[in-house]
Each structure stands twice: as C-alpha cells, then as structure tokens.
Amino acid sequence: MKLVDHFETGLDAPICLTWELTYACNLACVHCLSSSGRRDPRELDTAQCRAVIDELQRMQVFYVNIGGGEPTVRSDFWELVEYATDHQVGVKFSTNGVRLSPERAQWLAGSDYVDVQISLDGATAAVNDAVRGPGSFATAMRAMGNLAEAGFRDFKISVVMTRQNVDQLDDFAAIADSFDAQLRITRLRPSGRGADVWDELHPTAAQQRQLYDWLVAHGEGVLTGDSFFHLNALGSTPLPGLNLCGAGKVVCLIDPVGDVYACPFAIHEQFLAGTVRAPGGFTEVWRNSPLFADLRRPTSAGTCSSCPSFDSCRGGCMAAKFFTGLPMDGPDPECVQGHGELALATAGAPPRPSADHSRRKPVPVSIGFGRPADRACDTSPLAGMR
Amino acid sequence: MIDPTRPYRRAPQVALRPEPFGALVYHFGTRRLSFLKTRQLAEVVATLEDNADVDSTLDSVGVAPDQRAAYLRALAGLADAGTIQPRER
Hints:
heterodimer; A: TIM Barrel; 12% strand; globular; B: 34% helix; S-adenosyl-L-methionine (chain A); EC 1.3.98.7 (chain A)
C-alpha cells in the first residue's frame, strides 16, 4: 500500500487541522471563506478551547492552524496560544496583522512553537485594499515590519490568488524576501462570501497556465497548502504535495462554535461531521463520524472517468464544485481541460449558505436632511458626535 | 552519514505519531512534516535512546540481517534531516 493510499483511507488524527476561533473580524474581505464579521454568541469559551487543546495533545496533533475571523481580537487569544504550545500543540495562526504590535512581535519571536501567517491579497495597496478593505495593506505591512524587526524569521505571507493579483506573483516574492518571510499562495474558493465574487475574481484560464508555470519554476520554495493540484493536468511536472483532496481524510475544520466540518472551505451543513461539544469530543467526530467515513471511501470519478487527466487532477476541489452547483463526481469549475465551464452551463443553482456571520450592511436611510442616525433607535441629536 | 557504533536519539524538537503505515514525524524547529514508512523503522527511531548504539537498537527491534543496510541508509537520511542526532555516551 502506497503512503498516499493510507491518507485516502484516513489517519488516526488529522495532519492539517484548521481551527477558526471566532467569526468576529475587524475587516470584511469580499471573498471571506467563512463569511466572518460578527462574533457568534455560542463561541467556545476559554475553558472549552482549553479542553479542545487537551484533546489535540492526546491525539498528538502536532500543530493547529488557527484562523477566523480575526483570531487575535479574542481577548484570550494569546493565552490560548501559550496554553497550546505548553501542551505540545504547535500553533500557526493567520491574521490581518491588526494586533501585531512591536511588543507582541517580540513575544512571538521568542517561541519556537508559534508560526505567523499574514494575509495579503495584493502586492500593492490598490489591489489588496479592493478585496480586503481600506487600510488593510498598511496594517499588514506594518505587522510584517514588526515581525522582521523582532527577528522573527520565515513567517508566512499568505496570498489568495485572484484575477487581479496573478500578475503580481514576482512582487509578492520580493515582498517576502524583503521581510525574510516565506510566500504561501492558495486558491480562491467560491466558499462563504467568495461565492458572491467568484465570477469576477477567479483566475482566467490563461492565468491558471501562468500560475502553474510560475509554481513549477519556483518548486518547493513557495508554499501552497496543496491547493493547486487541479492544475496538475496542465503539464507533466506534478506540483509538490499530496495531490489529493484531504477533506475528512487528513484535513478538517473546527469552527468557532465547535462544529467540525470536512474542510475549511466547506462550511455548510452538507459537510458538517459533528461537534466537539458532544460526548467523545473531537476524537469521536474524527474517527467515527459517518460523513468522514464516507469521504474516506473510494469514490467514482463519475463523468471524469473517461478523461485522461483524471490521474493528475483527481477531479479537483470538492468545495469549489459544491459551491458552484456542480456534482461531486464531476469536473472542478476551473477544470483546465474546460470541462468545468461546460458543466457550469447546465448546472443547477448553487446551494445557499447555511451560515453567515457577515456584518449586516448599514442601510443608508435619509429622512430629508442631515446625516442618517447611527442606529435605527439612535434619535439623539448628539448621535454621531461621540 | 551515521555511525552505527555510536549512541543516537530522536531530536528533542521532533515528535513521532504512530500510524498504521509507520509514523508521522514533525520537527517543531523546521516545521516540516515527514513520514516513516514502516512500523519497525518508527520503533527504531523511538528506541534509539534506550540503547547503547544504533547496532544494538536494530538488534533489539529485530531488524532482519538483509534489511540492515537499508535501515542504516534510512537512518542516515533522518540524521541529515535533523530527525535523529548523536547523543553523548
């Protein structure tokens, strides 16, 4: 049995576990995979988070990828990081940089067990801020400067590849070099709010070729989280990585309320495996949930079975198919052979999201003159003067 | 390179997790994940520290004579990657 076959049938514990600690976020990125914004009142509290960490330690999950939302806005965030690393669970956390002060950067640089990943979706403020919001480029650059200044080597700069930033790949690499950081690029998914902007943001077919060539040229030097294996059908050089959809096999997600999903890009009831709050906790969900058992069974290639590229691309990304309304046993919407576009032409309506923590958009209400009230109930003449 | 007459140990920053195929190896310093592809090799790595040297570790785990050369090559690779390291006698 080859190593990769063991991964197909599932391991005793995940290799790559993502844990979103909160849906609260100071930003409102247009492509947010978890539709974050508002804190969920059912969020796991500090004690419950510690219990999850204890369990990860027992399962020997070496490290956890913490995200959100913006995880650092939790008041107990640094305490939880410390608790995890004290219990042999390494932490890599993703942040927009809002809380990475010079002092905090010093603290982080002092730990061997913490890695930091700064999100940046444009190599210029114009490209970045169009997706992540005004001021977010400056915030990220300041945070990276603080990390570099503190001597934190090899932190990650994480870029979601879009139609607007594929041409900036060399610029991203230069930014990473300038901070002694490592570049990580990942695939845009039509998950969360990503579904709303997918049509405008996902790379064109020509850009996919550009991306593949760039990845082949840069090899192991750039991290991808294995997210571009659907591009393998473009050439004979396989991209580094496992080349499989790891959902429920080696990957899963714990969301802020403790729900366990098959992968971070699949926050939808169809991929909900259970909750860490139930008896048996996360271990029980990982080892015995019917959904994960199903994902670990060999699947049919479906309409892709006659395609000579199937062995290279493996049908692509489950979440990308699901959220564009395509069947699981068919081509990826970005299939490099063009089968995805054909399938999309006849696909049904994409599924509706089953959770959304986006901040409600302010509804501009004008009652004749002056500025609108801060809140619907805010009728004081001093509203807006604080 | 590895000297089978010397004592070795799993590096302190390395964690091993037994799996059906062997073991997962994680190095907290380099943050790299790797794999040991047999259970027996995982046992060798885990018990290096309990034995006087590499040779006696292979004996105690019961590595077959015709497998020894392959195991020493694998261990040399693990030493290069920083997974295992010489320890003081």
